[in-house]
Please model this.
Amino acid sequence: MSRTVFCAKLKREAEGLPFAPYPGELGRRIYAEISREAWAQWLALQTMLINEHRLSPLEPAARRFLEGEMEKFLFGGGAAPPAGYVPPAG
Model:
């Protein structure tokens, strides 16, 4: 049986993550309060941010930026897409 959480992002009960996807206190908070669906949404946005800003996840500044955007997206009302981003039609 899968674990359910009240998702802080989706504001409803949903299937929880099977493990903490990030280290430390933030990872524990994500595990306790974020659903699989919301985490998948974050991963898609993270990929876009990495590509559009040409980030290297190996660089400490890029990791700090992504962590801040992740926290805003999951818990703080949403992270903005890159400047000039136009969603695909359809």
